Amino acid sequence: MDAEARYDEVLTEALERRYIAERAVTRPQLLTSIEDVSNVVKNATLISSLTYSLSHWRLPSSVYWARMVDAQRCRIEDMQAWEDEGERQLYLREHVSRLIEWEHAYEQSHGPKQPPTQLYFSRLKGVVEHYAADQVVVVQGGTRVRSLQGELIKANQCLPMPLEDDNQAWFGRGGPTLTVADAIGLNLPHALEAQCGTWRDWILGMTVVLADGTIAKSGSRAVKNVAGFDAHKLFVGARSTLGIIVQVTLKTFPLASLPMHEGVSVLPIPMKFKDRSMRRKCLWIQRTRRSDFSAALVAARSALLESDVASSTLWAEIPKDKELPRFAGDHVIRSGCGEMNLQITDPTLARLMQRAKAIFDPTNKLNPGELGVV
Amino acid sequence: MVEELGKLLSPERVLSGEAVARAYDCDAYTVDRSKPTCVVLPLDTAEVAAVVRWCVAHSVPFTPRGAGTGLSGGAMPALGGVVISTKKLNKVLQIDIENRMLKAQAGIANKRISDAVAEFGLHFAPDPSSQTVSTLGGNIAENSGGPHTLKYGVTTQHILSVTMVDPLGEVLEIGSLVPGAPGYDLLGLIVGGEGTLGVVTEAWVKLTPVPAAVRTALASFRTIRDATECVAAIIASGVIPAALEMMDKGVLRAVTAAFKLDYPAEADALLLIEVDAKPVSERNAAIPRPPDTDSDPNAVSPKRPTPNETVEKELSHVIAICNAHHAISIDMAQNEAERQKLWVARKKAIGAMGRLAPSIVTHDGVIPRSRLPEMLDFVYAVAEKHKIGVANIFHAGDGNLHPCFYFDDRDPKQVEAVIEAGEEIIKRCISLGGSVSGEHGIGVEKSDLLTLMFTPDDLRMQAMCKQIFNDGMLCNPCKVLPNQKGCVEHKKRWRGVGW
Ligand SMILES: Cc1cc2nc3c(=O)[nH]c(=O)nc-3n(C[C@H](O)[C@H](O)[C@H](O)COP(=O)(O)OP(=O)(O)OC[C@H]3O[C@@H](n4cnc5c(N)ncnc54)[C@H](O)[C@@H]3O)c2cc1C
């Protein structure tokens, strides 16, 4: 049995035994085609499609507890790596009891919950087509970033993001299991950003399922295109609050053109945190202007885990109740800090995001509460 | 109207009358025309907001306009009303060298941004061929590219934030000075929004270091197929040149006649190749380095190539590919003057083509790059079938074609042939996985063509994007999306842009 199948098995077993059976949640939907996603989304009243389990906003809506189920799923995957069975059991027990606690709190303030539909993408995966000569790949949303990289590397190409980015694991999804749709929804800073750009720059086209089940596409397979509004940009970093990303057309990078590391061309540089146990602590990702970056580094001092001078980004371990100094125009993404994880402080942006949400998801069924938009 | 707007600004900055209406009834796409009632020349964001609010209060349509070099009718006031010209919004407001960014008003010419920071070894990377006149606001609206887009990207990669007056007259700041801020990418919609989402009045742009080394070569080929296959091979090899521009024999003929340039007689295609490298300091910054590295402090890091070494290596790699594709000659610039000379054909071609025929119409389709050879064969076949002349000058590295048909527009048969040929070409671009426009935008010219590329559902999603900012019919109406209420149908005289 390959690792992925084993993961599925562990997932299903854990969900069913420890949670689904107990709390009468619908089974996760195993989606195999874009039409499947469309049908499910059309008929659902609530969709929890992604796991940003550590980035809870304000627990504003009925999806919150659903997200906890999702969180459970991600935790399980972490636990696979735990060698100590005792630790695993303890964690699971604690986690499940927290879930139930949250759920009670939710029911008290909102009344009985509706069962959410949980989209489970691991079957909507695979490279649809790799146009190697054009450096373009079309890929299903549920494809793991790691498998995609594996495919691309066979043709001496890649996505210029760290292959195993532990920084993604901080957000509830282990690096190895992060899907393309999730990675685009999260749009986290990465170590090659200044040189090679981000998802926003690599996405040439996208197919999404909108809240009413409509399948809509945007962009093309050409590397340059100004045909109409760049709708796909709106879904980058949107954490599935506006639509579900089911297929993406990406620009790939020749390995030969990646930035040089000590004079030798390397694969995208993995961002490895030395201490694995760090994964369960609180992460602080801060990006500043160039002029403030030295001061930000100094301020982080011993808490600093990693830094990227080119994009003025630092990764530090900062406990929930502490903060590092902030600088004009900077932004911070945290993990492990509940509603402090990600805050949209710009009132104009927040207002326009609400407006976009009302247009794209009028019944508020897609990950409500995520990013503060309901 | 003129009087009231005159009170809001000042009378001399509200232009009206027949001559003005005629001067502003189209942009560089002259097929469709529509006259404004007046043209306003605001000095700052507040004045733009005042004008927009006045228009909203009186249900008068308004259309932003930069230099009017747009090639799809974007700045044409389709339903009349007020043209908001950014002509006087032309100042650099702030330069922040340390953070490599500059804030300017939207009406500044693209080239002036680079000029303002040249002494610091920086520039604004988007370089549309119209850069000496086309404005920052126009570049933002059209998400313009240029010959160096291949390596440096289009405008959207170089805009940090904008100040904009939304279609209701409210002033919004969108984007962030530190890129990648969390939240929906609304700036990504505004760039490329073709002036339908509001009037951009100011923007912070990213500045890019001027390359420390540049090498330019001009290769000639006996057949266009050799040249296009060479382009596909260069891309596939993994090298990313700064520019990769192609001209075919139609263009060669025109520039040779116009500028007495000398190219090999048997050449049917020219390929202009430029490779460049960043300054060394930039490359060091590329390596993420934890501050407490446990690496051996005494370890000697291997020597890094200098920018000159890098470009020489890339150039020789590219030249080898050209030779493998039967290049008949390869000229290499030894200095800046020679470099400029190699660029002459590319830069002056459009002007020179005026000599070929009374009318020239150019298209802007884009295709996946590996399909260039078959696409060019197709373009020639279509021209031959319709018995019209064609010359090709294009951003080969991006797969962005500009087939120029030359013909006599006094002959209705030729006009008909040009229309049909254009449609065939656009349809082929789409069927190859490409797009109806690589850089000229949709405007009024191609809005009906969008239905060839997108389903009604796809277009509905685009309409939803527009609705976030613009839920009405006053801000630059009748552009981009097809079938808008109250809009006259695009005149199907001929497709493409007449030069
Ligand atoms: C000779 C020539 C060469 C060209 N070469 C290239 C090229 O290499 N690459 C390329 O991409 N394009 C090219 N173009 C097309 C054109 O120059 C670009 O689209 C340019 O960005 C338009 O700028 P402008 O200031 O002339 O805008 P305009 O033509 O005045 O307006 C274009 C669009 O932008 C909107 N707009 C203008 N200002 C604002 C604002 N402040 N806020 C909101 N909307 C605004 C208008 O409403 C309109 O929809 C070329 C055109 C010519 C004539």
Task: Report what the structure shows.
The complex is a heterodimer of chains A (374) and B (499). Chain A has 11 helices and 16 strands. With 374 residues, chain A is of the alpha+beta class. A 5-stranded antiparallel beta sheet of chain A has the order 4-5-9-7-8. In chain A, helix 1 packs across helix 3. Chain B is α+β, with helices and mostly antiparallel strands. Among the domains of chain B are: 84 residues, Uridine Diphospho-n-acetylenolpyruvylglucosamine Reductase, domain 2; 118 residues, Uridine Diphospho-n-acetylenolpyruvylglucosamine Reductase, domain 3 (2-Layer Sandwich). Chain B has 16 helices and 19 strands. In chain B, the strands form 4 sheets. Chain B has an 8-stranded antiparallel beta sheet with strand order 15-12-14-13-17-18-16-19, sandwiched between helices. In chain B, strand 8 and strand 9 form a beta hairpin. In chain B, helix 8 crosses helix 11 and helix 9 packs across helix 12. Chain B is globular and about 65 Å long. In chain B, 56% of the residues are buried. About 4% of the residues of chain B have low confidence. The interface between A and B is large, with 88 and 91 residues.
Write out key terms for the chains shown.
heterodimer; A: 374 residues; 5-stranded antiparallel β-sheet; 4-stranded antiparallel β-sheet; 17% strand; globular; B: 499 residues; alpha+beta; Uridine Diphospho-n-acetylenolpyruvylglucosamine Reductase, domain 2; Uridine Diphospho-n-acetylenolpyruvylglucosamine Reductase, domain 3; 19 strands; binds flavin-adenine dinucleotide
End-to-end span of chain A in angstroms? Answer: 41 Å
The helix content of chain B, as a percent range, equals 25-40%
Sheet bearing the most strands of chain B, described? Answer: 8 strands, antiparallel
Q: Estimate what percentage of residues of chain B fall within beta strands.
A: 15-25%
By CATH reckoning, the class of the domain at 92-209 in chain B would read Alpha Beta
Level-1 CATH class name of the largest domain in chain A: Alpha Beta
How would you describe the oligomerization state of the chains in this entry?
heterodimer
Strand content of chain A: 15-25%
Mean of residue pLDDT values of chain B: 90
Largest interface: A-B, 88 and 91 residues
